[in-house]
Amino acid sequence: MFLDFGFKQKCFYTQYFLRNQNCFVPTSEIIAVEETELNKKQRNIGKWQKMAKPHAFTVYYVKKARNHRWRCSDVTFWCVDEHLCNQWIQALKELLEMQSKPKQLLVYINPYGGKRQGKSIYEQKVAPLFSLASISTDVVITEHANHAKDNLFEVNINKYDGVVCVGGDGMFSEVMHGLIGRMQKDSGIDQNNPKAPLVQCNIRIGIIPAGSTDCICYSTVGISDPVTSALHIIVGDCQPLDVSSVHHNNTFLKYSVSLLGYGFYGDILKDSEKKRWMGPMRYDYSGLKTFLSHHYYEGTISFQPAKHTVGSPQDKDSCRTGCYICKKSEQQLSQQYKECGLKHEEDEEEWKVIKGKFLAINAVNMSCACPRSPKGLSPAAHLADGSADLILVRKCSRFDFLRYLVRHTNQDDQFDFSFVDVYRVKSFQFTSKLSEDNESNVTDIGKKRFGQFCRDHPACCCNIASSTWNCDGETLDSSAIQVRVHCQFVKLFARGIEENSKDEAAYSQSSIEQLL
Ligand SMILES: Nc1ncnc2c1ncn2[C@@H]1O[C@H](COP(=O)(O)OP(=O)(O)OP(=O)(O)O)[C@@H](O)[C@H]1O
Ligand SMILES: CCCCCCCCCCCCC/C=C/[C@@H](O)[C@H](CO)NC(C)=O
Ligand SMILES: [Ca+2]
């Protein structure tokens, strides 16, 4: 066997030849290197039998399987020379040290998320891998909602290289609110000011999926699988994520990274919260009930198109690892910010206003792909381009709405309906017809500022009810909201969804195990 280091495809790799076959493992995807104690049986195999005392070390690395699934695999190298063996161990360990892999993590486990398996998933599948990778952890099993969030305001956060949440989208949201809130508090920034220049959150968040939808994990990794996510944390991946801030007048309500949904998804959430005991099934039950009730809501939506980004929600290509559109959009936004500042962006740029009757208003910062809908609510949405896709589903027949929903699960275009419009936006406001009269403040500003009203779909007065906003799986207290997208505001231990490139196929197909 021959072992070598090299540089290929912009990354260091470890190359080894075994039985005339050539295998590559990027150094960034090595999990651990350990000296191997050879037992008597092993020492008595083949040519090692003849050696007085063979030495060996084992390299644990990421093996890529189908559908973005990662597994931990290993290969053991034998050697007659103890000094040479130690040199290899040392050299590989030094290479690992050079990477931005986490050493100390703070872990929050929600024991009641999803199928209530959070604790056992962590103990059986994740903790052994963290221990193999020599990662130290402080683990908190949450005792009530907001436990993790409150705790993040108190802990010595500088001690950690990352925070991990074991649970679903709601648990991620809690941890993100804790971290962002803590950063703003430490910097004296008032989150209630919708125009405040917020301080970015640089500590990475890892998600071990153990919830009901796990849409944030699925949309950023490509699969909802605890082992895969643990390995992304171990190798120290980093994926920036857009975050929307949601305000009601001058009161901060919440941040959102996946779905802000009014109407259909708001109603599903409100109904399903009463049925938490059903576990993930509650979404199917409430989904059917909400679909049958077929409620529509009247209101006004005003938005600023995201002109800084070159992408469109109707693009055929999706956001993938190292996405060019995300990079370009971020550069464009920082350039604009340097030249004109936030004030110009808020005050000068065009607002478009649409009044109508809607079955659903969905604003998504990412595709919102999840096991129920592998392509998501907006398949071409980008993780880190500083924009959200605003999807307006107007009042239509039950049958048409069903056709629209079914298209989330097949290859057909879900935006190709006369009653569905989609826009890429950097900020938006919504007021329901009901609150428009009461909250004249926001609407008056809107009326003064927004000249252009949509004439095709004039408001009708036959329905005055309000729905609720579903903000990443949590309900909001107000239906009148103002939303602004903050480009690349938090960072995850992820790398976006990888293309199934030739190289990746080579890594997985060369199936190192086959060679051993
Ligand atoms: N110990 C606890 N007891 C009760 N609620 C908790 C506890 N710990 C966390 N929570 C709350 O539970 C909510 C839901 O949890 P989580 O997101 O993990 O699961 P889920 O709702 O089943 O999944 P998803 O959000 O993916 O649909 C979170 O918003 C969190 O605030
Ligand atoms: C008759 C076939 C109907 C199929 C409909 C499939 C549509 C599924 C789309 C699910 C998108 C979920 C978006 C994610 C939202 C999360 O933020 C939230 C919290 O986990 N989950 C929900 C369900 O609100
Ligand atoms: Ca985005």
From TrEMBL:
One of its GO terms (molecular function) is ceramide kinase activity. Residues 100-250 form the DAGKc domain. GO terms for biological process: ceramide metabolic process. Signal peptide: none annotated. Coiled coil: none annotated. PROSITE patterns: DAGK. PANTHER family: CERAMIDE KINASE, SPHINGOSINE KINASE. This is Ceramide kinase.
